[in-house]
Write a structure and sequence with these properties.
homodimer, Four Helix Bundle (Hemerythrin (Met), subunit A), Rossmann fold, 7-stranded mixed beta sheet, 17% strand
């Protein structure tokens, strides 16, 4: 395995953006070449590119595609049109924090170089997009290298949802740990929770594991407990959407289930996430608002109704795992063990 | 609510068998009137009727439909043709123990009355089928009445899979407890695990709860833990496929997950099953062979592929819950508490 993964979900191809169209996965591996900002907008809107970091990176390259052919030479006009491009791209997924963050970072950078020529500003824009992409890659790789140290020889690792290269610039978060542990020859097999309701494990994680030639087996989420009972799981690693000051972790629904089961079976439970996921303004997990998603994610599949009409549904997107069930949190800065509150404090000061 | 549930999955309608065609659920409530043994064979084969006790009952009525128009008057000829009918019906679901048990019970009964006329034997056959059906109803009702005593006021009950009137002669097993607790005014709401991979909770249990007008909410299996964490579950009740001499219980995959989570959250975990489910010849759960089912149950849905082709899948039909996680086992003979080994022994002697 080279430094690169065996596929690139997003790559800058000297003038255009190439993405894997995730709507074709896992059936077909289709690459789309995006040459205009409109195509990037469409790709984000239609979930051809998904995963918070990946959306941010695609948006950044899309920004460059949107401004590269501007002919004005006046900064104010250029900046004003750049703002329009940023607003437009942001409208493709208005709730994606990484997207608005990336677009805003480019705008701020352009403004900081307001004395430069428009041609130079275009170059700076592209360089910033490449930097955003490279930073994400480096960060994911660091998470993977740190986390791999925790993986024992011949490990059977259970994971949940998709946290791989498809969702990030490359490597992923929890997936990066699996990838780098595999590179170090330590992975016996990966158990993949299918991850209801949207089946990211089934659709995407298995596909990434196939690409990386890592042995794996797919299981329904409720079979994870039975696997642990049979002594077939050595460790569990998941991603995180938000980590509070005390280490409580919000992540894909089902994560808390795994953490409780891990404790009951004395299996290490690890969380992998960029350092930026830690929200030092939030004291504890009880303060995290749980988004409830559409009922149809649970009541229908592939257009076929699987539950009676008008059935009441509880469909939380996330759950919250309390810090006492987490063995360690792995970020690009290293492995953080309990007491999380104290150890986060040290890192942030 | 009368003594009868609000629907009849199987009913004998003075000359023919009426069933709910379960292949149309939950979208449409379609009743089929079966007038020939061939139609009954087809209904069992095509899963129009499903659930172990329900198949046995349908088979028994089908037996009568198969022999009622025989014109011979000689016992040996009648018995030989009856055996042929039993073999034929049994071939619709050869692995269904309740089916072969019911068919054999009728054959044994016919043989015991070999001195009677063929017309009388036909009557005896129908009466035996009705008895098998009535016994199942009574047994399920007893389970429900005993179990309802364990349900506190205003209870929020979580259940898994389908254990209701669709799968039995009426009332069901775990479902019967919910039904009778509701009748006693004690049910606040029922949480329904969708029950991957075949979604019996989503497709069938919600439908039965709607029919019985019991408040309920559907959730994905991996959200059960989060519900417990939030203090929204007062008790859990599931069915059982097989209970060993020490109380270890094999049941639908996901049951063990619930039992571990119940323990961690200090929530009572009950198992409901006919007394005949207890296998005193099997010492403990470790001896139960776990059936693995077809990969496509996990990798495809409604004809749509959801995982890469050739992915390795672990798809156990059942898991085994150790006796120490079970608060009580409810049978038609009453509530059995630990020590199960000792208390089973008392009941069986």
């Amino acid at each position: 395995m080279s430094d690169r993964d065996s596929f690139q979900s997003i790559s800058w191809e000297n003038g255009y953006l190439r993405i894997i169209d995730q709507t074709f996965l896992p059936k077909r591996e289709v690459y789309s070449d995006l040459t205009t900002v409109g195509q990037v907008w469409d790709a984000i809107k239609k979930l051809r590119v998904r995963g918070a970091p990946a959306i941010g990176i695609a948006g950044a390259y899309g920004f460059y595609l949107g401004i590269k052919d501007f002919s004005m030479q006046n900064f104010d006009m250029f900046y004003s049109e750049s703002q329009r491009i940023a607003d437009y791209l942001n409208s493709s997924r208005p709730t994606a924090v990484n997207l608005s963050w990336a677009l805003n970072r480019i705008l701020v950078t352009i403004y900081a170089y307001k004395d430069r020529s428009v041609d130079e500003l275009k170059e700076i824009t592209l360089k910033t997009a490449i930097t955003i992409h490279e930073e994400d890659r480096r960060l994911c790789k660091e998470i993977g290298l740190h986390g791999a140290e925790l993986v024992p020889e011949n490990a059977r690792i259970l994971t949940h949802c998709n946290t791989g290269g498809l969702a990030t610039g490359e490597f992923g978060t929890a997936f990066s740990i699996i990838l780098h542990a595999h590179k170090a020859g330590k992975v016996n097999k990966v158990w993949v929770d299918e991850t209801r309701p949207l089946l990211q494990g089934s659709r995407l994680t298995t596909w990434e594991l196939q690409k990386a030639k890592i042995p794996h087996t797919l299981n329904i989420d409720s079979a994870a407990a039975f696997l642990m009972q049979q002594g077939k799981v050595d460790l569990i690693v998941t991603g995180a959407d938000r980590i509070t000051k005390n280490g409580d972790t919000a992540n894909k629904i089902g994560t808390y289930m795994l953490a409780v089961l891990a404790k009951a079976h004395e299996i290490p439970f690890y969380v992998a996430a960029p350092y930026s996921t830690i929200d030092m303004n939030l004291e504890s997990g009880g303060l995290i608002e749980i988004e409830e998603r559409d009922d149809t994610e649970v009541t229908a599949f592939a257009g076929k109704q699987t539950a009676p009409k008008k059935v009441d549904v509880y469909n939380p997107a996330f759950d919250v795992t309390p810090n006492n069930l987490i063995t360690a949190i792995i970020t690009e800065k290293g492995i953080i063990k309990p007491n999380f509150a104290k150890n986060f404090e040290k890192l942030f000061t």
